[in-house]
Specification:
With about 210 residues, the protein is an alpha+beta fold. It has 8 helices and 4 strands; from the N terminus they run βαβαββαααααα. The protein has a 4-stranded mixed sheet with strand order 2-1-3-4, with helices on one face.
Length: about 210
């Protein structure tokens, strides 16, 4: 049995829960982080010394893995042959590229907006920094929109693991930048994601 340590409202944990649902893999969730706490518990730090979520624990083999995109890749390699794992080295590399870009580029741009949104006026904010983050975020989603003008999904013509990390943040983008520019290809891709029950359950309407 796979055990996932994380909480449903975490963007990083949502990637894993969404992926597992797409693959039809059973798992146990241990609510951790946020209001649930537990990140500094010795039991958890023994699994994940980084002290963040999510963490995958395979109760059968003892295998433990942390870092959300690494977990998604592992699950797709183990359970997603012919579905979420692209079928050629080129498509797999393209999916990997967008997964890396989400962590190295998009996340750093959008995170200040997300933190400001979560505070909702409860605390000081740097208006100039927030506006700069907003402009950077719009520019990056514009890049995605231009890519999707040539591709149905992030790694080609089929839904794959490459759509999962960006799909989680694409939903948040509409909340954080409700008055942003019209990105028709991004909107079309979002509609395709919204047709997926796993996306609706784990990204659009996550329980606390």
């Amino acid at each position: 049995m796979i055990r996932i340590w994380g909480r449903a409202s975490s963007s990083n944990a949502q990637k894993v829960f969404w992926c597992l649902a797409e693959l039809g893999v059973d798992y146990e969730r241990v609510d951790t982080g946020g209001k649930f706490g537990g990140l500094d518990a010795p039991q958890y730090l023994a699994l994940n010394p980084n002290g963040r979520v999510p963490t995958l624990e395979d109760r059968g083999t003892g295998f433990v893995l942390w870092e959300s995109n690494a977990i998604v890749r592992y699950l797709c390699a183990r359970h997603g042959q012919g579905s979420l794992l692209p079928g050629t080295p080129e498509r797999q590399a393209q999916a990997d590229m967008w997964m890396e870009w989400q962590q190295t580029t998009l996340r750093s741009a959008i995170l200040p907006l997300f933190r400001s949104f979560m505070r909702r006026g409860n605390g000081a904010t740097d208006a100039a920094a927030i506006e700069a983050a907003r402009e950077d975020t719009i520019a990056l989603f514009g890049l995605i929109d231009r890519h999707l003008a040539q591709h149905a999904y992030m790694a080609g013509d089929a839904f794959s693991m490459g759509d999962i990390p960006l799909g989680v943040w694409a939903y948040r983008y509409t909340l954080l930048v409700p008055d942003g520019p019209d990105f028709p290809n991004l909107a079309r891709w979002r509609r395709l994601l919204e047709e997926r029950s796993a996306y609706r359950e784990h990204v659009m309407l996550p329980p606390e």
